[in-house]
Amino acid sequence: MSIFLERVTNERIKVIERYVVVDRFYDFKRVDRIRMGNRLARITSVTAQRVEYTDEAGRAWFIDLDECARIGSCLEHAGLFPPSDDLDWAAVATDESRCAESSAATSGCVGLRGALDEPAWFQFLDQRRTQFEFTDGRALYAELLNPMGRMTFDAC
Question: Do 65 and 72 meet the contact criterion of CB atoms below 8 Å apart?
């Protein structure tokens, strides 16, 4: 977002900042943001178990959806779901006392979606807090949500 903001006038920046901070339910600050379609960023494979993609630099990555579901279950078990903007859910997921009785089968939720936001986004419940951004909600559903077929949380 900061690259885009540098190219617009100060008056436009105020409008965009107000929209992002006020109109969004979430204002995540610590995310691994991947802007799909920007440079080399692409989803290369989606299955029920994992999402494979390349980042803007062309490096290959994958996200384990079962691990995301386990973290979602830990958050739910700890009473922290949906998570706040600044919650370190990686720390919660590694805390055995908070996750001992949770299992991915109870939740199954693998991430948070903002299909109506601009840009549309999906944040996986992985330890890196990987957040994909898409041109619009249609692209989010066509490229990720429909092929993935997993439970997600509407964060709008």
Answer: no
Condensed to tens digits (0 to 9), the pLDDT of residues 60-88 reads 999 999 999 989 888 888 888 888 888 88
Using the Cα atoms of residue 98, residue 103, residue 104 and residue 108 in order, give the sign of their dihedral.
negative
Residue 99 φ then ψ, to 5°: -115, 5
pTM given for the model: 0.77
Starting at the edge strand that comes first in sequence, how are the strands of the sheet with 42-46 ordered? Answer: 42-46, 50-54, 60-64
Residue 50's DSSP bridge partners are 64
Percentage with pLDDT > 70 across the chain: 73
Residue 67 has φ and ψ, to the nearest 5°, of -65, -40
Tokens of 7: 């190219």
